[in-house]
Amino acid sequence: METFYSKFSIRNFKFLLILLFLIPSANLLAQLNGTYSVGGNGSEYASINDAVTDITTQGVSGPVVFQIAAGTYNEQVLIGEILGSSTTNTITYESASGNAEDVLLTYGATGTADNYIFYFNNASNIILRNLSFEATGTGYSRNLQMFGRGDDILVENCKLSSPTTTSTHPNQAVVWFDPSSSSDIRLLNNFITGGSIGISYKADYYSRVPGTVIENNVIENSGYRGVHLQYQSGFIFNNNSVSIQPHYNGTSLWVSDSEGGGEIINNRLIGGGPGYHGVYLGSCQSPVENPGLIANNVIANS
């Protein structure tokens, strides 16, 4: 009995030691919640990618805001699924000053594998606010890219720039969203310039995406298409200014394979060249009780 008691005590002692060792590690991996500083002297994170690594590893227990110090960040940011995120527990990346011109994310891609500055890869509940992006690659110049699933993404008050081109190649789109499924994607009050396409957002053929809102944006100097929307359901495209370069069959707003109503209201759509379309609708339909509306737009062939 004495020997058994001794062995039992030793086992318990070892177990307690293991628990004591693990408790500090668990605290170090506590979920993020609140506001954190990025870049600059004394910040909690030296780079945007450092912040992404932590939030990807640890998850969130409430809304998280990363305030980025003024400066130029030559980084590529890839963000995936975040444990604990929701429409309430959002993750925001924003300029600490509130001025988009103070924070610039820039990158020069050389091929399809690295053709992005900010990549939503199965990411949801993300907000980009008051930031500038500049793609410097010539043949590959996407600013924002989305693949996989993506829900509840907001891009607001940002400046996005790609080199001016007359190319029609999708590798040179400023914003390229091609998710397998998604919902509630919003682009509001942004300035987008250059590229072959300003915004391209098409979802999977089998899932018409709801909740798309593109409002109050200025999109200029697109190579041949300002905005391309495909497989949408009840989208809103209001109060935008879109100007494209003269191009054969150029289009300011292209919508295809979409259904469930939709609004195209109070936009200024400018283009040029033979075959120019201010608005092109292809294979779009709405039920009688929920018709689409196109109203009060200015369309001009310059």
Automatic annotation (TrEMBL):
Top-level lineage group: Bacteria
UniProt-listed InterPro entries: Para_beta_helix_rpt-2, PbH1, Pectin_lyas_fold, Pectin_lyase_fold/virulence
NCBIfam families, alphabetized: para_beta_helix
Protein name as catalogued: Right handed beta helix domain-containing protein
The species this protein was found in: Christiangramia sabulilitoris
